[in-house]
Each structure stands twice: as structure tokens, then as C-alpha cells.
Amino acid sequence: MKVSAATKLAATLKHTNKKVVLAESCTGGRAAALLTLEPGVSAHFCGAAVTYQQSVKSAWLGVDVELIDTHTAESPETTVAMAIGILQRTDAADWSVAVTGHFGPGAPPEKDGVIFVATARRDEQNQETRWQQFQLTTVSRADRQSEAAELTLEFLLQGILEES
């Protein structure tokens, strides 16, 4: 039986005594929901913001409207800004992760099923980030949300493990 990314992440957070916060868009809160299924994670999970609309990304996370207008809401630049914004607004968190993407309908073919995931880690500058693009392998919207949520938690886990 495959161990989920949420299970591995919860165990790693407990072992490293780190705390995390999430900024989700295309996943609609599914990554947070997966993580909160893990017993005892409340000691390490600060919370999540589901910022589905561009204006909410700006209002809640401080993502610059011009950045979104220039690069789109589904871009590495916006995703990194989301990760930084949620970390800056969550004093207790050591790490953040953000996810954006385009699942359609109406997605340009080259962006359909593409997601961006970014992490930010608190350090002296509060700006250490990394990001990655993923092409989802599933087709239905629900399956894409699940796949994206799993990839988001795996990407955060990888960052924390590399730091430890």
C-alpha cells in the first residue's frame, strides 16, 4: 500500500518540529483537507487560504495585481508570490506552499492541466523560495484536484527533507 504524501508530511513535520501554511487555488482546499486527515497534525499545520479569484489572491496574500496581469494567475511568478504572501502573514509557520493551475474549461491547450507549485521557507530575509511546473496525468476536474493536491504536499515534503 502506498503511503500518501500527507502521511509522510505529517510524520516529517512532527520529526522536524516544523509548521506549515498553505495557499491553494486550483485545488480548492483539497491539499489542506488531505493533511488534516492525519492525526496530530494540528500541532504543525497552521491553516490554509483558498484564493480562487485573482482579487482574493491580492487582498488576502498581497499578490500584486500588476504581477497577475503581466504573468496571469496561473504562473510561476504568481505562485511564488502566493507562497511568500501566506508565509509573511502567518508568523507561526516555518514553511508555506502554494499551488495554481488551469483545469478548464476554456484553458488554452498548452495550459490545460498544468499546475505550478511553490514553497517559501522562513529565513532572515523570509524570501527563500523554489517552484516547479507539473503536467497532470488525469482528465476529470475532481481527479486533477486530487492529483494536484498530492503533488503539492509532495513538493513541500521534498523541500523540508532537503533542508533537514
What does this molecule look like?
The chain has 164 residues and is α/β, with parallel strands linked by helices. The protein has one domain: Alpha-Beta Complex (Maf protein). Helices cover 42% and strands 21% of the residues. It has 6 helices and 5 strands, in the order H-E-H-E-H-H-H-E-E-E-H. Strands 2-1-3-4-5 form a 5-stranded mixed β-sheet, sandwiched between helices. Helix 1 runs parallel beside helix 6 (141-163). The model has no long low-confidence stretch (mean pLDDT 94).
Key words describing this protein structure:
164 residues; alpha/beta; Maf protein; 5-stranded mixed β-sheet; globular
Quickly count the helices: 6
Please state how the strands of the largest beta sheet are arranged side by side.
Answer: 2-1-3-4-5
Roughly what is the average pLDDT, rounded to an integer?
Answer: 94
Question: Residue share in helices?
Answer: 40-55%
By DSSP, the count of extended strands is 5
- Overall, the morphology is globular
Uncertain spans: none
Termini separation: 26 Å
Query: How are helices and strands ordered from N to C?
Result: HEHEHHHEEEH
Please compute the radius of gyration using only Cα atoms. Answer: 15 Å
The CATH architecture name reads Alpha-Beta Complex
Q: Provide the domain count.
A: 1
State the name of the first-level CATH class: Alpha Beta
Secondary structure: elements and pairs:
Layout: H1 5-16, E1 20-24, H2 30-35, E2 45-50, H3 54-61, H4 65-71, H5 76-88, E3 95-102, E4 114-121, E5 128-135, H6 141-163
Parallel strand pairs: 1-2, 1-3
Antiparallel strand pairs: 3-4, 4-5
Helix pairs in contact: 1-6
